[in-house]
């Protein structure tokens, strides 16, 4: 009897986790399409295929679901680069302990890997709903933007700043490097934020292996030209 009770408890917990995951995945899409005000709890529950009461039960209400969706989105994006981020952080920490700067060549290698992953993610079907959610928060920031920025945007931008600072041999905290980093990030974000224009200009219908290889080469080129103006100076 006790064993059966434990099994039932486990099954109930698993169903609860599945319901929560459905709501989070659906919320990113529905909030991105209709905004916070336009995404009614009925619309959210119906799209997720769950009971209406699941929203207050798991998230305390629509606002709680909205914030949780932003945190879930940050985690999804972070998972694509978490292993590489850990490697770069570890290397930077090792160099700091030794009192040594990262070489431009090593920084270019890390930055190239990071950009290649992000560009491929940005042209994927998976990231369409993510972009809609993020664009809304960029236009009219709420507490959800604070979560997105703090959990994924700021760490990624700051890591890029450190790598670009090493490449350009300048202070990562300087205004110059901050601006260069933002411009660089923008050249990568265009593949998601202007997705339709990118596909139209490149005359692509999909991003298969050939297209991905092209994007990998382009990412390497974006990194390679960083600091090229210094090399051309007499």
Automatic annotation (TrEMBL):
Residues 40-59 bind DNA. One of its GO terms (molecular function) is DNA-binding transcription factor activity. Residues 17-77 form the HTH tetR-type domain. InterPro entries: Homeodomain-like_sf, HTH-type_TetR-like_transc_reg, HTH_TetR, Tet_transcr_reg_TetR-rel_C_sf, Tscrpt_reg_YbiH_C. Keywords: DNA-binding, Plasmid. It comes from the Bacteria. This is TetR family transcriptional regulator protein. It comes from Rhizobium fredii.
């Amino acid at each position: 009897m006790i064993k059966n009770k434990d099994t039932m408890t486990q099954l109930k917990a698993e169903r609860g986790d599945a319901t929560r995951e459905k709501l989070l995945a659906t919320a990113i899409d529905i909030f991105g399409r209709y905004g916070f005000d336009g995404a009614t709890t009925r619309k959210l529950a119906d799209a997720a295929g769950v009971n209406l009461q699941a929203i207050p039960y798991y998230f305390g209400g629509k606002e709680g679901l909205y914030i949780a969706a932003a945190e879930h989105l940050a985690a999804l994006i972070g998972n694509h680069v978490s292993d590489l981020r850990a490697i770069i952080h570890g290397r930077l920490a090792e160099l700091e302990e030794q009192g040594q700067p990262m070489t431009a060549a090593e920084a270019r290698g890390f930055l190239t890997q990071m950009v290649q992953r992000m560009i491929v993610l940005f042209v994927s079907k998976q990231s369409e709903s993510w972009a809609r959610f993020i664009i809304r928060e960029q236009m009219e920031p709420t507490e959800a933007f604070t979560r997105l920025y703090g959990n994924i945007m700021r760490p990624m931008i700051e890591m890029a700043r450190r790598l670009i600072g090493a490449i350009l041999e300048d202070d990562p905290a300087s205004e110059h490097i901050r601006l260069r980093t933002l411009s660089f990030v923008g050249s990568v974000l265009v593949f998601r934020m202007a997705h339709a224009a990118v596909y139209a200009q490149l005359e692509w219908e999909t991003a298969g292996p050939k297209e991905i290889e092209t994007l990998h080469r382009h990412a390497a080129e974006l990194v390679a030209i960083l600091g090229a103006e210094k090399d051309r100076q007499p």
